[in-house]
Design a protein that fits this description.
By secondary structure, the chain is mainly α. The protein has seven helices and three strands. The chain has helices spanning about 5-30, 40-50, 60-70, 75-85, 105-130, 135-150, 160-165; strands spanning about 60, 90-95, 95-105. A hairpin with a 2-residue loop joins strand 2 and strand 3 (about 95-105). The chain starts with 6 loop residues before the first helix and ends with a helix.
């Protein structure tokens, strides 16, 4: 008979996930550095590449990229500026809204995605090598379940000025 996890177990799990992500991120950052790509830029490129319609000449608006990355539009602009300067993306006017800009991956951007994919695969393989495939599958299933439940919950209520006055 197994005992249900305690709050301490959940906190320890959160700490372990945080440590794992920091280590994986650090290794990824070190391996992408020779290519001049930051993890944030890699994430933006992957998001652009996996957006519906971006396989061909269809594109994504800068505001959509910011939303998908959960960052402020100004931060997305900074990331895209660096990607454009590196020749990995180009900006094009939106044909339906002249105020909007669309982003297009260049051939160099697609090649960078290949390198990013290789680095991500190598780092993940090295980190998770000591864990059996069955345990990796169970961990993945558990994390997907937790994420799904988290996404499905109602948004937390934000405190108002009225609450603060009480």
């Amino acid at each position: 008979m197994t005992t249900p996890p305690t709050a301490d177990t959940a906190a320890e799990l959160a700490d372990a996930l945080t440590r794992a992500m920091k280590r994986i991120r650090r290794q990824t950052m070190q391996r992408l550095e020779p290519y001049g790509i930051t993890p944030g830029q890699a994430r933006a490129l992957r998001t652009l590449a996996h957006a519906p319609g971006c396989e061909g000449r269809e594109t994504m608006r800068l505001s959509e990229l910011a939303d998908k990355l959960h960052i402020a539009p100004r931060s997305a602009t900074t990331v895209v500026d660096a990607l454009e300067e590196a020749g990995l993306v180009t900006r094009t006017p939106d044909p339906t809204d002249r105020r909007a800009v669309r982003l297009v991956l260049t051939d160099a951007g697609r090649a960078a995605l290949e390198r990013i994919g290789q680095v991500r695969h190598e780092v993940a393989q090295e980190y998770f090598a000591p864990v059996s495939p069955a345990e990796q599958g169970a961990l993945l299933q558990a994390l997907r379940g937790a994420e799904s439940a988290y996404e499905a919950r109602p948004a937390p209520r934000r405190p108002t000025d009225e609450d603060a006055a009480r």
